Amino acid sequence: MPGHDPGPARVLARGLAVRHASRLAWALTAVDLVVEPGERVLVTGASGAGKSTLFAALAGLLDPEAAEVTGELLVDGRPPHEARDRLGLLMQDPDAQLVMTRAGDDVAFGLENAGLPPAEIWPRVDAALADVGWRHGRDRPTQALSGGEKQRLVLAGALARRPGLLLLDEPTAQLDPPGAELVRDAVARAVVARGTTLLVVDHDAAPWLPLVDRVVEVRDGGLVEHPAGWRPAPRAAGLLLPPAPPPALDPAPRSSIRFPDQWASTSTNGGEGEGSWIRFPDPRPVVLASEGAGFSYRGTTTPALAPTDVALAAGRVTAVTGPNGTGKSTLALLLAGLRAPTTGSVLAADELAVRGERRPHRWRAGDLVTRIGTVFQQPEHQFLTGRLRDELELGPLRSGSGSATARARAEELLERLGLAPFADVNPYTLSGGQQRRLSVATALATAPRVLVLDEPTFGQDAATWRELVTLLAEQRAAGCAVCTVTHDRDLVDVLADASVDLGAAP
Amino acid sequence: MSVQDRTVGTTRWRTVDIVTTAVLGVAFGVVFIVWNVVNSAVALVPPVSGIMNGVYLLPGVVAGLLVRKPGAATFASTLAAAVSLLASPYGGIIVVYGVVQGLGGELGFALTRYRSFGWVTAVLAGITAGLSTSVLDMTIYYPAVGFWSVKVPYTALTVVSSVLVAGVLGLLLVRALARTGALSAFASGRSRV
Amino acid sequence: MTASLALGPTPDVPLSRINPCAQILAAVVVSLVLLATLDVVTPAVVVAAELCLLPAAGLTHPRTLLLRTWPLLLGAGTLAVVNLVLGDAGVLGALGIALRVVGLALPGVLLVASTDPVRLADALTVHWRFPPRVAVGSLAALRLVPLLVTEFETVRLARRTRGVEAGRNPVARARLVAGVAFTLLVGAVRRAGRLATAMDARGFDSGIRRTNARGSVLHARDHVFVAAAVVVAAAAVTTSVLAGTWAPLFVGG
Question: Do C114 and C220 fall into the same domain?
């Protein structure tokens, strides 16, 4: 590997079939694929279709004891595990790919492994960093980097080894739109500079289209080649959602939450004298609202969240959008009663108050759970038990329901969310989409009046996306107040009745 | 002894062995930093303070039970001690402690020839680790106290703590980790749910 | 607890010009002498010499110093009291034991204040043939520590959303912390697996002999540093013998 550069690699798969040891069905059956040197190919398909299996096979990551492989698979004429030094990988989680604490050191890591002397290492490090458009220099601490920058650095580390084939597995799945943009830009630059063969595996095809020559899709265990000019169907195509509850017909019931005069002018309700409680064209009772709520960490001068007003009305979906760093997740934590605002206040309506206390962060966890359900970005953070069924029963039990009620509720949710076959399985062993559905289900188990979700559609494929959107619409129809923090424009377009943009000028 | 508890793997260290052992060491090092503060106060009462020592022996025994390779216990224990050095009351000597404690645990695994990783081995490793650390403590920190009045009870309590915390709790921890599917790359993670 | 785990780049203090290997060797020399005796004069001399190095490690400000060493002082004080009350060493003996603890611990404090893990790993692998894969594996794991710390808070909050919270009850608190710690451990072990895959993809398990891109160099001043440590050790022993307080300790006796 070290000295010379043999140029871009050729990939050949003929009748490739893979079966995982723990499953009966074949993940891939009879895959035929030829990728010429220098070509750029996108491999797309739904989650679970076999894309990751194909990636693992190409990258030489399949454990011979854990998977049965038949057929032919060659990278530059050799089986993948022999051709590993010709491969450059970029995977989803940047923190599970970076090794060193300084940028330059991390890029040098791969070259140290190749046994190169320092005099040869550093020029190649600089060249690789330049090829991905790195602007920070070698000494930048990796901890201070954003997700997109980290992925860019990982790419540089792969490039430094002069691979013939770049294999990317959903590299933007855990990044926000600017970060994803950064990574795609870096990949484009790298491929132009080096002419490497490129193979991107991603369920989200649209953003990669400008960058690739061909698109193939994994379907039913085989590959389908899409014609030039193919476009994926929009996620929301043909999606039928239950409608939002209608505005109250009689004059809207007085909510116990009052807001300053400035809101009166934004409502079309004619405006009440002392301030209206609504921001929407149609009046619905507000159940939870933040009045100038802001948050600063102790000892810092700039607030993590600037004072913000948000009103969550029953039967409406409110989206919170804005660039990173404006405090979207912090706002979600404040609304969910997990953090106390350092300025302003977050108040619930009287009917939600616990013994007169209207501030959610003062409620006991058992009371909070029946009023506000929260879904975190990473489902795994919210897993507590070793069985899916127990996860669903936990919330109701913790809030005082009897075990019979809890069990019934869990059964109901298992059916509704299609998780019944997995009822006794450990939550950690579920797929990403299943984990996401489980985390939403556990929040719903206690029938809360408010639902707060932090990036619920993050990294989900089209099928799970549609399910989640339908689920949220159903909650809305049932009168729940839904608030989602998101940078997913499709979600906002399809579902949101109102939106708060934290990045907009006041 | 269940199938899960017996192993006939190679002794060559794969990358995943190295990184997982290192991560265990580092994670427990953070735990040590917190536990050190708690311990400083309790150290006022030496025979009884032996009961706190089990925690320090956890990384070695857990690493040995999880990774199942010679040297895992020593590596994890030493690294945990080194990490705790970053905010430790006891300074550089703590690394020597880490090595000795790790070797102590290692002895327990060696006694079952690195072939069995169930309750017997866990308890054995707990005993040997506990003994090693109390001998070290007696030499360095409590040389002047009475033998029968303090040293023996201290050793006994340390060994008990080590067996309960490092041995029993350690094995339960490894089994719980296995059930989450996080140990699929290891022999300790295969077979029963 | 300080230094945010000292993962940052090497601080720019005079002591950082000394190679970490030299510092460790000096510490070993001095520790051997400290361990060999139970009197009060030997550790006093050694501690005095170590204290002189504190300014060279940038630890001059009394507040920073206290912040880094308060657990040490507390521990040493506790030990002195214990040995005094429960043992037969007398006041001087107890003081000697406390000083011994301080003497053993200070080199560690100095090392942490004057180097960073990468530089330490480089020095160990280049000069002392420390297995490079073990060193790099440790560095990779160490990099994950700040992530664990931030995740702790997230997971704790996540538990509140599931109705699990500790009030005042210390037992409930302990169970909550244990639960959070377990979640973090699962995440860490899984991440370790993925990291291992990524490292292998960059040739970590290729079997080729690793080189070190940064290298580590030993200068004359490093040898001088170790020699000075030997001198200090010798001086301590001599002073102690001359003062008649030399009390060698036989392990097991």
Answer: yes
First to last CA, chain B: 16
**By CA distance, what is A384's nearest residue in B?**
B180
The predicted complex's ipTM stands at: 0.87
Is the CATH number 3.30.830.10 carried by domain A11-226? Answer: no
Rounded Cα–Cα distance for residues A175 and A184 (Å):
11
Token pair, residue C76, equals: 């040493």
- What percentage of chain B carries pLDDT values higher than 90? 50
Q: What secondary structure does DSSP assign to A151-210, as a single string?
A: HHHHHHHHHTT--SEEEEESTTTTS-HHHHHHHHHHHHHHHHHH--EEEEE-S--GGGGG
* Distance (Å) from the alpha carbon of A499 to chain C's nearest alpha carbon: 24
Report pLDDT digits (tens) over C142-198: 999 888 888 988 998 999 998 888 878 888 888 888 889 999 999 999 999 999 999
Please, which pLDDT band fits residue C250 given cuts at 50, 70 and 90?
Answer: low
pLDDT tens sequence across A307-348: 989 999 999 999 999 888 788 999 999 999 999 999 999 999
Q: Do A382 and C158 touch (CB under 8 A)?
A: yes
Domain membership of residue C250 (yes or no) is no
| Shortest CA gap B175–chain C (Å) | 12
Cα distance between residue B74 and residue C118, in whole Å: 21
Q: Are residues C33 and C117 in the same domain?
A: yes
Residue C77 lies in a domain: yes
CB contact under 8 A, A97 and C147: no
In the chain, the amino acid numbered A168 is L
Dihedral pair phi/psi, residue B114, rounded to 5°: 55, 30
- CB contact under 8 Å between C210 and A112, yes or no, is yes
- Choose among C78, C141, C186: nearest Cβ to B19: C141
Q: Which CATH architecture has domain A282-381+444-501?
A: 3-Layer(aba) Sandwich (3.40)
Give residue C182's domain range: 130-201
The pTM for the full model equals 0.88
Q: In chain A, which residue's Cα lies nearest the Cα of C176?
A: A384
User: Is C83 in Cβ contact with B44 (below 8 Å)?
Assistant: no
Q: Which residues of C touch B183 (CB under 8 A)?
A: 189
CA B177 to chain A, closest CA, distance in angstroms equals 10
CA distance A292 to A276: 16
Q: What is the pLDDT of residue C241?
A: 86
CB contact under 8 A, B193 and A428: no
Residue-range definition of the domain harbouring residue B97? 3-184
Contact at 8 Å (CB) between B33 and C149?
no
Closest-CA distance of chain B to residue A430, Å:
10
- The maximal CA–CA distance of chain C, rounded, in angstroms, is 69
**A11-20 and A67-75: which strand pairing?**
antiparallel
Q: How far lies C126's CA from each of A118, A409, C16, in Å?
A: 13, 62, 17
Structure tokens belonging to residue C99: 């000083």
Distance from CA of C37 to the nearest CA of A (A): 41
Domain count, chain B: 1
Do C141 and C121 lie in one domain? The reply is no
- Measured distance CA(C34)–CA(C107) in Å, rounded: 12
Q: Which of residues 5-44 of B touch C (CB under 8 A)?
A: 13-16, 18-27, 29-31, 33, 36-37, 40-41, 43-44
- The answer to whether A208 touches A42, Cβ cutoff 8 Å, is yes
Residue A44 and residue A51 in contact, taking contact as beta carbons nearer than 8 Å: yes
Please indicate if any CB of chain B lies within 8 Å of the CB of C109.
Answer: yes
pLDDT at B47 over 80: no
| A114: nearest CB among C160, C187, C203 | C203
Residue A255, pLDDT above cutoff 70: no
Tell me how crowded residue B113 is: count the other CB atoms within 10 A of its CB: 8
Asked if C60 is an interface residue toward chain B (Cβ–Cβ < 8 A), one would say no
In chain A, where the domains are located: 11-226, 282-381+444-501
